[in-house]
Design brief:
6-stranded antiparallel β-sheet; 3-stranded antiparallel β-sheet; alpha+beta
């Protein structure tokens, strides 16, 4: 173990124990076939829509060509945001069955959420960016990473995760995973949180942008309606 790794372990207050994480809550959903008629939606095969609890949130999925050109452009707009700067150190979560003595096992207080497993450090060699695509799931950029423990350069976070999993999780049939959930970064308050938190924040900002677009459209439409009404009188 080199000096940098020793210092890193010291920062994390390494202890010889693993914190258990409860199973992730399963999110179940249903698809309700609908058809738009006028300003409302009806059940596609007749009858009214099922009663849905007030405050329920979800996504309405429609063909892109059903939108007007202005809305279509807003929902299709692509842009990139920086998630983390070059040089950021990240932790990759693994369920190791071999070489456990090479892994970092931080204290539970170091994390924003409960975790189960141990960690391997990864360092970003370039800025980590994310491609936002309206309401579609964002895509993480291919950011080169360095894995100090393995002394290996990876092409991306996904590649780094696969290399780490191949060494420490040989029992797995596949060595891929969701890096938004498996990779952690240190937040402003000093705790470690999954990249999923950054992804959700970026997605929320993108959806708020679309909300602002729709409010402007609604305001313009309302203004034209008022003017048209006055002209008629």
């Amino acid at each position: 173990m080199n000096l940098k790794e020793q210092q890193f372990q010291g920062e994390l207050r390494v202890r010889e124990r693993v914190v258990r994480m409860p199973p992730e809550s399963s999110s179940r959903s249903v698809h309700i076939p609908v058809q738009k008629r006028g300003s409302t939606f009806e059940f596609l095969y007749g009858g009214s829509l099922p009663e849905i609890r007030d405050g329920t949130k979800g996504y309405l999925i429609v063909p892109l060509d059903s939108l007007n050109p202005e809305d279509r452009a807003a929902f299709e707009k692509l842009h990139t945001e920086r998630l983390l700067p070059k040089g950021t150190r990240l932790l990759v979560l693994v369920q190791a069955t071999v070489f456990a003595d090479e892994l970092l096992i931080p204290s539970s207080e170091a994390f924003a959420i409960p975790v189960d497993g141990a960690f391997v450090e990864v360092e970003l060699q370039e800025d980590l960016t994310i491609l936002l695509r309206g309401t579609k799931p964002p895509i993480l950029s291919s950011c080169p990473c360095y894995i100090p423990r393995l002394d290996i350069q990876a092409r991306s976070l996904n590649h780094a995760y696969s290399l780490i999993s191949e060494r420490y999780e040989p029992h797995r049939a596949s060595h891929t995973g969701n890096v938004f959930q498996k990779v952690f970064r240190r937040s402003a308050d000093g705790t470690w949180e999954p990249l999923e938190a950054l992804r959700k924040a970026a997605q929320k900002s993108e959806e708020e942008r679309l909300g602002e677009h729709r409010r402007k459209v609604a305001g313009t439409t309302s203004w034209f309606a008022r003017v048209a009404s006055r002209l008629k009188t």
